[in-house]
């Protein structure tokens, strides 16, 4: 696989034909053969959002356009009966350069089509598939670094990067945040300054305090008895900030593990601060009493849309952050026995 990827990276610069127009020819079979039209939305180098269409005849189509410059431009090829309500399986991402002669063989879902004649699209398909399948994040980082260094101004490289480490995905790799941020910094000013690039930069900034090495934002809430508690009140201790809810079965399923760790380390400078995203006080208190929860628990009783939950990017529970005595994040989303084994590394 690596050899194929490297070969494609080397081949990309040589793709350029004498013609000024690009042409896409395709054959459609299988489930898509019942659909009537092909739509192509693309940036021609001067104006983004241009859309052309042709009719599929006898399972075949041919659509062409004109690029204003010599760079690769992103395009979306779609098959359907109208331009509205296109499903993801009816849309295909292409990266087109003027002069290219592209063939598309559609047998099933459009994104799985066989593409020839568009080297950057072929590379995009190969990379997206292999990078999303692999569990080796270091290999993904290495391949993407090679791609971005060679093509810092490439829309294809940018989309490939977003597919792997885009918004909502970065937090899956909390220990790799600095490396991911550095990867993005390798893109050209044009990519970083694009609408998507600026949004990504803003997103990265918004989660920088939630990943390992970041400092959690302070917050204030109340216990069920009405006592005001601030996260900063616990500075000087190792603290597990645990987001949960009374209706969350997996959350309460973690309580035995939390109790075990709490009993072992509570007298060794360790505390748990539970934060409930409940909105019903009676259900919250009932859960605390039934599960005999001994650590500090607070809630603003604003439900999942609680501003503190949003600040902490909590879109599902359970979720937790382990911070050191200085408030720095040292681990995230510890489940089961992992909490106890992690604490063993820091608390002697």
From TrEMBL:
Which spans are transmembrane here?
none
What broad class describes the main subcellular location of this protein?
other
Q: Which residues form a coiled coil?
A: none
- List the InterPro entries hit by this protein, alphabetically: AhpC/TSA, DUF4369, Thioredoxin-like_sf, Thioredoxin_domain, Thioredoxin_ResA/DsbE_sf
Which subcellular locations apply to this protein? Cell envelope
> Out of the domains of life, which is the source?
Bacteria
Mind listing the GO biological process terms from this record? cytochrome complex assembly
Cellular compartments per GO CC: cell envelope
Write out the entry's keywords from A to Z. Cytochrome c-type biogenesis, Disulfide bond, Redox-active center, Signal
* Signal sequence coordinates: 1-18
Q: Which is an annotated GO molecular function term of this record? A: oxidoreductase activity
Concerning Gene3D superfamilies, the annotation shows: Glutaredoxin
Q: Where is the Thioredoxin domain?
A: 210-348
Could you identify this protein by its name? AhpC/TSA family protein
In which organism is this protein found? Answer: Pedobacter hiemivivus
Which classification does the entry list for the species? Bacteria, Pseudomonadati, Bacteroidota, Sphingobacteriia, Sphingobacteriales
